[in-house]
Amino acid sequence: MPFDFTALRRFPDVEAPNLQAFDASDRLVLDESAAALAGIEPGELTVIGDDYGALSLGAIALHGARRVRVQQDALSGELAIRGNAERLGLEGELVVGGLDAALVDGARVVLLQLPRSLDALDEIAGLVARHAHPDVVLFAGGRVKHMTLAMNEVLSRHFGDVQASLARQKSRVLVARSPRAETQESPWPRQRRDESLDVEVVAHGSAFAGARVDVGTRFLLEHIDRLSEGARTALDLGCGTGVIAALVAKRRPDLSMIASDQSAAAVASARATADANGVGDRVRVVRDDAASEIPAGSIDLVLLNPPFHMGNTVHAGIAEKLFAAAGRVLAPGGELWTVWNTPLGYRAALERHVGPTRQIARNAKFTVTLSTPRPS
């Protein structure tokens, strides 16, 4: 049956004229895997990192795949896949799950949108090699400008045969076969101690910055002692590995702390980080898209280190979405502490979405600001 890629939407993720729900690499992966898909039974296809459903729904519509297991780390992407499937009448053929053994158990074909992170690729490839069918074939596609030889090396740790397709429309597919028998135990998540901050960091492969504290977060944490003393509820919005939430919880046992992120890998990492630092009972970690499940006006203190990439695209949309979320959940008199790359000039957006904003600190790369909500 025909399949109209342009009918796919990104919603509830950020939508803009320069942001699409598919790219040429999706088409190439589906074309390169066509012969393999023709020989599988229902339930033998797994799709990982399928941004908005182009791979999983394309495999169903174009190649007759059935009962397709699909995983997307970002909650907004997962919701977009479900929404696209419903609009196309294909929702009955999808089984949405997490990045675990059940996702790939017995799979003979795995389609993958290559992640930006080599660590993420390592965790995914290891999972497939350990738990998929011994004859599994992994088709991993991406845009050539974002691909490196290191990706081949990572796949070769877990598969005996890794080949690259010919490039088409600035895209390429890596095809991996023959899982290595020695791939038995997963090193994920990884844990590392940051002595300067006295914190244990635990990270899955897809978590931003891995098991280290990124420089923006580190700069924000220099001002942790200046946070509102009267605050009783706090939110680490877009928490990543949960370092901010864990350290604030250690310093401020009086706070009721929530750590929220739409990334499944980040949520799993943040829970593990909280446990590793002895505050697992005082940090509630939730997978949530831009604090959508947190009641308006219920949070005294929001801490935010917003991402500035959407996939491989630099775009302010995700930051503005988080600023708006912070403005909604802040209680009267509350505080939003934000750290951001100075060249991005987020102050006007913070003023617009939250309220009066002043600079707390600035170094060669980052700015820390304090925003307070306008009186209603």
UniProtKB/TrEMBL annotation:
Pfam families: MTS, RLMG_N. SUPFAM superfamilies: S-adenosyl-L-methionine-dependent methyltransferases. One of its GO terms (molecular function) is S-adenosylmethionine-dependent methyltransferase activity. PROSITE patterns: N6_MTASE. Keywords: Cytoplasm, Methyltransferase, rRNA processing, Transferase. It comes from the Bacteria. Residues 5-177 form the RlmG N-terminal domain. Residues 199-369 form the Methyltransferase small domain. Transmembrane segments: none annotated. The keyword Cytoplasm applies. One of its GO terms (biological process) is methylation. PANTHER family: RIBOSOMAL RNA LARGE SUBUNIT METHYLTRANSFERASE G, RIBOSOMAL RNA SMALL SUBUNIT METHYLTRANSFERASE C. This is Methyltransferase domain-containing protein. It comes from Labedella endophytica. The lineage of its organism: Bacteria, Bacillati, Actinomycetota, Actinomycetes, Micrococcales.
